[in-house]
Specification:
The chain contains six helices and nine strands; from the N terminus they run E-E-E-H-E-E-E-H-E-H-H-E-E-H-H. It is an alpha+beta fold and 189 residues long. The chain has one domain: archaeoglobus fulgidus dsm 4304 superfamily (archaeoglobus fulgidus dsm 4304 fold), CATH 3.30.2170.10. The strands form two sheets. The protein has a seven-stranded mixed β-sheet with strand order 3-2-1-4-7-9-8. Strands 5-6 form a two-stranded antiparallel sheet. Strand 8 and strand 9 form a beta hairpin. Helix 3 runs antiparallel to helix 4.
């Protein structure tokens, strides 16, 4: 893959949720033009649902930022509990690379058990996670990638990880998402 510098990116994170009967969970996207916060997108996804990729794509497609975006970043492969993001669908639909980040290597056995035993459609969600492949170490975090090389992923993380090990677009989305629900942001990713 060519040496490409990704400067216009969006990072997504979900808002905290506590109620078992809460069906919709807020999702925040922080749009960056290089290291400058350039905009914010807010939507919703279904708790433990299967609409994450579709809702993320719709948010981006309906925004004024679509034309300039070069990369989508996600805080984890699932949002709103076990609403697993189909990164293959997201990549195909928007023709944008997707970079999934995690602070720690996930416990796949525990995830498989929780999905297949407790979540409707969990078997299909587990297959989607397995299809994405293992997470790779990049600096002090782990990533999964779709549509970009490991070298490109390393450069993206190094460029955007300013105040944390997590890239700023995701860190900022996390702060906004927390403030939406709790009135103020809390702990940084």
């Amino acid at each position: 893959m060519p040496k490409r510098r990704y400067s216009n990116v969006i990072g997504f994170d979900d808002a905290p949720f506590r109620r078992r009967n809460q069906q919709q969970v807020r999702l925040v996207g922080a749009v960056y033009a290089d290291l400058r916060l350039d905009g914010v997108l807010i939507g919703e996804v279904t708790r433990d649902g299967d609409d994450a990729a579709r809702r993320i794509a719709q948010l981006i497609e309906r925004s004024k930022f679509l034309e300039h975006l070069q990369l989508i970043m996600l805080q984890g492969i699932a949002v709103a509990g076990f609403n697993v993001v189909d990164v293959f669908h997201l990549h195909r639909r928007l023709s944008l690379p997707v970079l999934v980040t995690a602070r720690q290597r996930p416990n796949l056995a525990a995830i498989e058990s929780a999905l297949t035993q407790n979540v409707p459609g969990g078997g299909e969600k587990w297959k989607l996670i397995k299809r994405q492949g293992p997470m790779e170490s990049v600096g002090r975090i782990y990533v999964q990638r779709m549509g970009l090389s490991l070298e490109q992923a390393v450069r993206v993380v190094e460029h955007f990880a300013i105040h944390s090990h997590i890239p700023e677009p995701i860190r900022t989305a996390h702060l906004f998402a927390g403030a939406l629900v709790e009135g103020q942001s809390r702990g940084c990713v």
